[in-house]
Amino acid sequence: MKFMTGTIINVITILIGGFIGIAIKKRINEKTFQSIIQVVALFTLFLGVQMALKVEHVLVLILSLIIGTLIGEWLDLEAKVSRLNRSLKTLLPTTSNQFNEALTTSFLLFCMGSMTIMGAIDEGMGNGSQLLITKAILDGFSAMALASALGYGVLFSVIPLLVYQGGITWIAWLSGSIISISLLNNITAVGGVLLIGLGLNLLNLTKIRILNMILAIVIAIPLTIIYQYFF
To answer: In the chain, how many domains are there?
Structure first.
């Protein structure tokens, strides 16, 4: 589909960057490897705080996290992805024990920025793929760094990226409407809080089940619409 060009290119650049990162990883000693993980963790914390501060409706942020976590715990998404990781180890012997963190960190870094949402909307509305192609190039280099630190989970982040980013493009193509700035900021803020949790996990300071909270991003959409309608 022509209107998905930017997202498809984005998927390809992440896969290329990720494979390069994994190849580089094999040539990195353990001390350097741990230092790279710490750098990724610190950058994740920084970006998370920056994104979380964009929140426009604190109540939407809190409720999204609570409701999203309740649903995620009920579905036990963390355990399901962990089982996937164990299955992949039979096919990919070098799969990292940090598969969950790699998958979730990559998805949030690649998908929660304003460039993702606005680029997907632009493409869906027929304004071209320039923004998403620019993002794709940046994501390719980011994937290289992430995969060198966290492993194969980075490659599998293209699946939720395709659904999320492609879904926004598809909705914009169907409706021709532009997402409100408030909705964009609230989604970004929820993603930022989750990134903070991921950064703490990568530093081994906490064991927060971030995957069980990931649906908070989706919950933020109807809650923002409801909040704007009634308040």
So the answer is: 1
